[in-house]
Amino acid sequence: MDKQFVVIGCGRFGEALSTKLVELGKEVMVVDISEEIVQNISQTVTYAVQADATDENSIKSLGISNFDVAVISIGANIQASLLVTLMIKELGVKKVIAKAQNELHAKILYKIGADRVVFPEREMGIRVAKNLVSKNVLDFIEFAPDYSVMEVLVLDEWIGQSLIEIDMRSRYGINVMAIKHGDDINISLIGTYEIKKDDILIVIGNNSDLQKIERAEI
């Protein structure tokens, strides 16, 4: 059975997240204290409910425990963020993801049971910065302290060579996960594939190795 999502707090992050989940075919319920926000998002998501998420009775009445994933995207009210995260976790939601304002906020969220903590503004800032300083990097996702995934333009010396000939794993310490060319994406790569000028490589590796590509010094 497909996962069901509940998003609590519908600011810019919560709205963007909810909208994208629906576009991906997921069932999404949004909960926000603002009647205006609920009305605006109601035509986009599966359900939109006006409720005070800090009120335990209100949350229970919504059947939150039936959802697989809860995203706590409450904005600057750290106290409300912590209280709602704790309640949602105690109600038995399988996975709770919470938005944090700072490191201390994140630390407390983890302590009270959040399965994952995100910093949307900081993460987007890092991605934009990576794109600004490198002519090769199109997109960047850091998924662990030392490892990342990047979309990169091919270097001139790669064009016309096969993946076997370039041998990125042994020479550069990175792995090619997929190759995009126009609207096509190839995830079933074979070693004889020859790199083309307009290819975009999706690579994974240690940050220190990936930085070589950013500087085009490989």
Structure description:
This protein has 218 residues and is an alpha/beta fold. It has helices at residues 12-23, 35-41, 56-61, 78-90, 103-111, 120-133, 163-166, 168-172, 207-214, and strands at 4-8, 27-32, 47-50, 69-72, 95-99, 116-118, 137-142, 147-153, 174-181, 184-186, 200-206. It folds into two domains: 4-118, Rossmann fold, CATH 3.40.50.720; 123-214, 2-Layer Sandwich (Alpha-Beta Plaits), CATH 3.30.70.1450. 36% of the residues lie in helices and 27% in strands. The strands form two sheets. It has a six-stranded parallel β-sheet, sandwiched between helices. β7 and β8 (147-153) form a beta hairpin.
- CATH level-four homologous superfamily name of the largest domain: NAD(P)-binding Rossmann-like Domain
Mean pLDDT: 85
Instruction: Tell me which CATH architecture of the largest domain applies here.
Output: 3-Layer(aba) Sandwich
What structural class is derived from the secondary structure elements? alpha/beta
Helix content: 25-40%
Q: Which stretches are poorly predicted, pLDDT < 50 over at least 5 residues? A: none
Question: Within the largest sheet, what's the order of strands?
Answer: 3-2-1-4-5-6
Q: Mind telling me the CATH class of the largest domain? A: Alpha Beta
Number of domains: 2
